Amino acid sequence: MSELEIHQTRFDTPEVQKIVADAMAELARRYGGSGDDTPIALTDFDPPLGRFFIAVQDGEPVGCAGWRRHGDDAELKRMFTAEAARGRGVARRILAVIEESAREAGLQRVILETGDQQPEAIALYESRGYQRIEDFGHYRGHAGVLSFARAL
Description:
This protein is of the alpha+beta class. It has helices spanning 14-31, 90-104, 119-127, and strands at 5-9, 50-57, 60-70, 73-81, 109-115, 131-133, 145-151. It starts with a strand and ends with a strand.
């Protein structure tokens, strides 16, 4: 097994769209519907508005995440690790890259929405020092939404 590589990419690339589709399918299994109806434009992650990253191992995409500007904050979106790559620290490494990228862009915090049916995501965010905040995004006011932030 080769070393994990994480690199910045465009959100509209075929490899990103494939792994994002996998993420949406998993969210649909957990929550029903389409998985996540948050409006996202293909350009939301283009600098200087944001950044998108993909994790690749043995030539295969195994994870992804991006951030987009939300005022002085970086909003984490499309954080996902492929099932076969879970438990190997992929998500933790992607999250560290996201945080560093947002810090370098001069942003103050990383904020995010997740759901109560994603205990592994909640555990990751809490282990990295994220704290609950008032709901802010597309799912504000929906049952089961959990919003978090971490100062950079």
